[in-house]
Amino acid sequence: MTKQDFNEGLLGFLDASPTPFHATQNMAGMFANAGFIELNEKDKWSLEAGKKYFVTRNDSSIIAFTYPKNEKEYLLVGAHTDSPNLKLKPNPIIKDFEVVRFAVEPYGGLLLNPWFDRDLGLAGRINYSDTSKKIQSVLIDIKKAIAMIPSLAIHLDDKANKERTVNKQTDISPVLTCNGEFDFDIFIKKELEKLGIMDVEEIFAHELSLYDVQNASYIGLEDDFIASARLDNLLSCYVGMLSICSIADDKPMIFIANDHEEVGSDSTSGAGGNFLEATLKRMFPSHEEYMAMVRSSMMISADNAHAIHPNYPDRHDERHTPFINKGVVIKVNSNQRYASNATTIANFLANAKEANEPIQKFVTRSDMGCGSTIGPITATRIGIDTIDIGLPTWGMHSIREMAGSDDAYSLYNILVGFKI
Known about the structure:
Layout: H1 3-15, H2 20-33, E1 37-39, E2 51-57, E3 61-67, E4 75-80, E5 85-96, E6 99-107, E7 120-130, E8 135-147, E9 175-177, H3 184-194, E10 200-212, E11 217-219, E12 225-228, H4 231-246, E13 253-258, H5 275-283, H6 287-296, E14 298-302, E15 305-306, E16 328-331, H7 342-355, E17 359-362, H8 374-382, E18 385-390, E19 392-394, E20 401-404, H9 407-416
Parallel strand pairs: 1-2, 4-13, 4-14, 14-18, 15-19, 16-17
Antiparallel strand pairs: 2-3, 3-13, 5-6, 5-10, 6-9, 7-8, 7-10, 11-12, 12-20, 16-18, 19-20
């Protein structure tokens, strides 16, 4: 696969995945097309050596794995499907001042200022009862720009360029329409009718997010960069998904993409839940086999890394400054905010050297806080040796982030040839 083919597929995946539900659905489709067999957690599993499988939970997390005979040394690649965004509240309609607005709640640690003056679509999951009183679930994606959060003009805020602050309750309600007769349930039913769903009796619940309808794209004089929403962490999801689809069936590998990382991972579908552990125990029902596999395997937690920002170089440790398009970043933190240790770092470096791919290292400034990932959570819950790595990006948690057009492909090349 060429880098251009890889990146073109990445752009398409980003555009088609406005929510964790859509990202999971798209990855499930990719796995099915690649010959993976879908499993259901509610059923009894009868796994056959030599075949490949995938399973989802909550429509927002997914695990795919190969199942070679008598293999215990697995490479696990972990990522997360969720990104910071604005979610609609359960009663989402505000009518005042001759306009209709959405009531929203920030999800995760998002940068709020970039959300102003953007063309916003709406996507997510709807649960409803049909005319036979059965509860159904469906995904929707309203790609049309149906809303915007207008900025307050500088004439009315002379401090806007000096000390701009955003109130999460009062300042970020997107404007939807001037039609005071607007009814949310009727609006949703009409959108479902566009999908051919004509038997909706009542809308029960929704998990809907606003998103920027601008497509992912190349940026730069020589297409140096990729700009898109949700690079954190669909970038890693795409690399992990494509990697396990590209390896031989007899190579032991597991790919995990969990939801809810941006809010702490504590959920049934988050890394703090038992999704991965339960799957591994069904793959290896004997406790001895399970423990032998865990202690013989290695986990790569792939999440984005902070590239040095040319306008703010002082925000980095000058000896640990990742650059865009200079390779995968190994993330290290002595306080275990990242799970990397000398053993897993050495293993990853050896594989990168074998693949002839560059590697960088990141340590946050000692006088600044350090974020975390699913790496320490998975290492703690499962007991597996883990390394935290990432692809260098700018604008993390903005409505539109930037990454290099070389780095994701570099990680892909490392993973497809990785040896434990």
